[in-house]
From TrEMBL:
Broad class of where this protein is predominantly found: cytoplasm
InterPro entries reported for this sequence: OTU1_Ubl, OTU_dom, Papain-like_cys_pep_sf, Ubiquitin-like_domsf, Znf-C2H2_OTU1-like_C
Full protein name: Ubiquitin thioesterase OTU
EC number per UniProt: 3.4.19.12
PANTHER family given in the database record: HIV-INDUCED PROTEIN-7-LIKE PROTEASE, UBIQUITIN THIOESTERASE OTU1
Enzyme class: hydrolase
GO MF annotations in UniProt: cysteine-type deubiquitinase activity; zinc ion binding
PROSITE patterns linked to this entry: OTU
């Protein structure tokens, strides 16, 4: 079948799988995925659909068509983790507790997961809503995604958009002390095929990145002016949290809007222009994000603390 292609997302990047047809078998798919990802066929764990569900790879002669795999679909490929258990050595898959296929309006409370304030909080937060875990090692990979995306599209990401020349921006975002914001959110929304809804506690609004792309799923972050944290739904019943939601789930969106209003009224935000800072390396006092950035540029100091 001419034109058959699958989108592939892995920990190391994104690619397109060509050369297969809907009549090819799971065995042929596994062979192709293994060669592209360097993951052993026996360790492949593939998810497809919305929300992502494990693809049954056990029947090798089943066709892609019979498994509901169509041209244009996105496959998420992970490596099956091996563990020693009392009954012997066997492969197990860690449950994806961050995704709950519970339909619309899952009863629960939208809560904030605090992540480290280490200049990469945006990337750690996105990693959490994707995996259900706080992992600070996600940042370099996501910075690389952004740098490659921006570098490959200099027309869309011009100096006027980036605030600096395209090559300079790409070098800047790769640095571990560079903060992410709207540009980085837009790029990652496009890369992961997700709407990213950011609860802005300073203005009591929600900024939705990727809203115009009509993605099937939405995730939530909270932004207090300088720091991002991920949001998740804690169900009233059961132990599994939820971090991914259908974009037509109005109930959880309303919860996020209420959370924004509550956060603003209780002053859970940082006024980036008015807050007072101290450089913890030289003890110099300053006010606002701009002064802090200028101080960091001049001195190379990057460790600041907010003071009353």
């Amino acid at each position: 079948m001419a034109g058959f292609a699958l989108k592939l997302k892995t920990k190391s990047g994104q690619m397109v799988v060509k050369g297969l047809t809907c009549k090819d078998t799971i065995c042929e798919l596994k062979h192709r995925l293994s060669s592209l990802t360097n993951i052993k066929e026996s360790s492949l764990h593939v998810l497809s659909g919305y929300p992502p569900k494990p693809l049954d790879l056990s029947v090798s002669d089943a066709t892609l068509e019979s498994r509901g795999i169509c041209s244009g679909d996105t496959l998420i490929v992970e490596e099956r983790q091996e563990h020693n258990v009392l009954s012997g050595q066997k492969n197990t898959i860690e449950p994806r507790h961050h995704i709950v296929d519970s339909g619309l309006g899952c009863p629960g409370i939208l809560m904030r997961k605090v992540v480290p304030a280490d200049n990469s909080c945006l990337f750690t937060s996105i990693g959490f809503v994707l995996s259900g875990k706080v992992n600070v090692d996600n940042a370099p990979f996501m910075r690389q995604i952004i740098a490659e995306s921006v570098s490959n599209d200099p027309d869309s990401y011009s100096e006027a958009v980036l605030g600096k020349p395209n090559p300079e921006y790409c070098r800047w975002i790769l640095k571990p002390d560079s903060w992410g914001g709207a540009i980085e959110l837009a790029v990652l929304s496009n890369f992961y095929g997700l709407e990213i809804a950011v609860v802005d506690t300073l203005n009591a609004i929600i900024n939705r990145f990727g809203e115009d792309q009509h993605y099937a799923q939405r995730v939530f972050l909270m932004f207090d002016g300088i720091h991002y944290d991920p949001l998740y739904l804690e169900p009233f019943e059961g132990n599994s949290i939820q971090t991914m939601f259908l974009t037509n789930d109005d109930e959880v969106l309303h919860q996020a809007e209420e959370l924004a209003r509550e956060a603003k009224s209780s002053k859970q935000y940082t006024d980036v222009n008015g807050f007072n800072l101290k450089c913890l390396q030289c003890q110099e006092l300053m006010q606002g994000q701009i002064q802090a950035q200028q101080h960091a540029k001049i001195t190379g100091h990057k460790n600041f603390g907010e003071i009353a």
